[in-house]
Each structure stands twice: as structure tokens, then as C-alpha cells.
Amino acid sequence: MAIEETKTVTTHKRGSKAAKHTENTQTADVKSVKSVSSEKVSKAETTSKKAKSSSRGGGRGNRAGDASGSVRGGSRGNGSGSSKGSKSTKNVKAAKNTKNENTRNSRGSKNSSAASSSTGNRRNSRPAPQTTAPQQDDVLIAPPKYRKGSMRIVPLGGLGEIGRNMNVVEYNGHLLLIDCGVLFPEEEQPGVDLILPDFHYIKDRLDKVEALVLTHGHEDHIGCVPYLLKLRPDIPLIGSKLTLAFVEAKCKEHRINPRLVEVKGRDKLKVGPFNLEFVNVTHSIPDALAVFVQTPAGSLIDTGDIKA
User: Fold this and answer.
1) What is the predicted pLDDT for the residue at 132?
2) CA distance 134 to 255
3) Whose CB has fewer CB within 10 Å in the chain, the N or C terminal residue?
4) What is the secondary structure of 66-130 as a DSSP string?
5) Which comes out higher in pLDDT, residue 87 or 209?
6) Secondary structure string (H, E, C) spanning 221-266
7) 209-213 vs 236-239, strand pairing mode
8) What is the pLDDT of residues 216-238, one digit of tens each?
9) Number of neighbours of residue 251 by Cβ within 10 angstroms
10) What mean pLDDT is predicted for residues 150-158?
11) Cα dihedral 219, 221, 226, 228 sign
12) Can you tell me the mean pLDDT for 141-151?
């Protein structure tokens, strides 16, 4: 329209009224074109703002779609641009939903694989059940090396059991034995008559034994005396009158003549580095004694068996 009016202006003479009227008409038409184009620009800007706000909620993909739709709407018309922008927005949203579903599926598969692997590891890490019980020798721990000037107490039997009571008190290489009994077998031990204490700890040092103290005359405290005296017959036996009488009769059965040292309550006796003091105690057998042992490293009391 503007081009046609320009051609008309060139056909009139300068300064004529027709030329002036044509120039005014051209100016009005230009103004109308400018207003129309400004309206289109403002509508395009409004559409682009809306597209930007919608793209912020939908993601980067929606921004690209809305922007392209708004630009196309500004150039070709508002209707076509907005429709294409909305279509692109829907396509981007659908693509994003598909990606989210794929991400969720991949996370679910990872979690399931991790759970299965952890379950497999747990199953593999479970210890295999023991088919046989561990031997007693495997759980025993050797005592530490003796430190000079200290007192060591070693039970050779009677610890955690009823029977074969025997304790060793050691000081600077000197040994004092307290009780030497037997343990009677159980029903599941056929063919066994007696169970003796383990002499292995003192077998190579029997010459260092100062004496054997007997607290009372029960078999679980004196029954193994003849078997110890077979290893060294001259070990002094210290005890009450009744206790030594029982031991002497046992030793005669094994053709052994023991060295007997009779004591009673409140008696004191020194044997090597050990100072002994005897105390009367009540038990189911008469003439039972407890012994109080003193050494430079410390003191202890062995009560034997007591029944109030």
C-alpha cells in the first residue's frame, strides 16, 4: 500500500495541492503501519514473556520450544505462533516425562541389583557351621613367662569342676603344692577308673617342690597322692592327724612310705620361702584345715572345702 502511494506522488507536480494531499495521505498511512507493527511487536513480546514464564516451570527444553513459537508467531501471525509454541511445549513435556520414567526405571534396577548383590554377600559372608567341636587343647593358652620376684598360682585341676583339686604356688623357682585329688569318671567314660591332675607343668621341676599341703581327707583332695609320690617319693606331706592317716593307708597299698608332717589349727610352719599358718574349718569330714600362705611377693589363703 505504501509503495503504490509513492508512485502516485511522483506523477504530480511539486507545490501543487494534489501533491500536498498525497504527501499527507502517505504520512497517515506510514503512521498507521507503524502503529500496527508496534502492536504486533508488543503482542510478540507479551507472548515471549508468557513463553519464558512457562519454560521456567517446564525446563530448558520448554524454553527453546516457547521461544521458537513466539518468534514464529511474531513473523507469521499470533495464532500460528502460539499454536506451534504450545505444541512444542507439549512435546518437550512428554519427552521430559519419558526421561523421568527412564531415570526411575534405571534407579529401580540399580537398587534391585544392589539389594540382590548385598543379599548374596551376606549369604556368602555367613560362617560355615562347625561340624566338630573344638578340642580343649586348641583353646588353652600358655601362661606368660615367669617374672622373678613375683608369686604365681597355677591350678592343675579342680578349676570349674568337682574333683582332682590341686594348686601350685610358685615363688622364685620354689613350688608349694596344695591338695592332690582325683576325679571319678562319668557314665559316658566307660573303662576309666580315675582321672588325675595334669602333672606336666611340674614334672620336670619336682626337685623344686618344697612340700604338699593336704586340707582334708576326701578323695578329691588326697586320692592322687600315691601317683605323685611315684614320681618323687620324698615329698613332705603336711596335714592334720586324720588326713595323714587316710593318706598313709593309701600309700601302703602302693608300697610307698611317705614323709608325714602333722599339724593342727593355729600351727605355724616355714617351708622354703613360704610361711604357713593353719586354721580349723568346718566340713563334712573332721580335722579339716585351711592354710594361709605368706611370701615376699604376697599372701593367699586356701580354704579347701567349707560347709557352715
Assistant:
1) 45
2) 41
3) C
4) HHHHHHHHHHH-HHHHHHHHHHHHHHHHHHHHHHHHHHHHHHHHHHHHHHHHHHHHHHHHSPPPP
5) 209
6) HHCCHHHHHCCCCCCEEEECHHHHHHHHHHHHHCCCCCEEEECCCC
7) parallel
8) 999 999 999 999 999 999 999 99
9) 18
10) 93
11) positive
12) 87
Is 60 exceeded by the pLDDT of residue 125? no
Distance CA 217, CA 287 (A): 8
Q: Which of 66, 110, 120, 117 is nearest to 90 (CA)?
A: 66
Q: Which residues pair with 270 in a beta bridge?
A: 275
Burial class (CB in 10 A: 0-12, 13-18, 19+), 60: exposed
For 175, the 3-state DSSP assignment is strand
State in Å, rounded, how far the first CA of the chain is from the last one.
134
Beta bridge partners of 279: 290
**178-to-162, 210, 211 alpha-carbon distances in Å:** 16, 11, 8
For range 138-155, the mean pLDDT: 85
Q: Is the pLDDT of residue 264 over 90?
A: yes
Distance CA 20, CA 44 (A): 36
Q: How many helices (H) and strands (E) does the chain have?
A: 8, 10
Question: How far apart, in Å, are the Cα atoms of 188 and each of 7, 136, 223, 245?
Answer: 133, 17, 22, 33
Cell numbers 495521505: residue: 25
Nearest CA to 65 among 78, 57, 74, 55?
55
| DSSP 8-state code for residue 147 | P
**Residues 65, 66, 67, CA angle at the centre, nearest 5°?**
95
